[in-house]
Amino acid sequence: MTTRWHYKVVEVKATWMTVKPKQIEEALAMLGAQGWELVSTSPYPTSVMLYLKKPG
Predict the structure, then answer these.
(1) What pLDDT score does 5 carry?
(2) What pLDDT score was predicted for residue 55?
C-alpha cells in the first residue's frame, strides 16, 4: 500500500529584521502537535519557509 501525503508550506516572518530561533521553535511545536513533520527549510532575508508533510 502506498502512503499518501499532505503537504504544507509555512512562512515564519522576521520581527525587527531577523527571524529568531524561538519563532521557528514555536511554529514547529505548534505544527508538530498537529502531526506535521518538517521536511526542509529555505532561509530568506526577512523570513524562513518551512516545508512540512504528514500522512494523508
Answers:
(1) 97
(2) 96
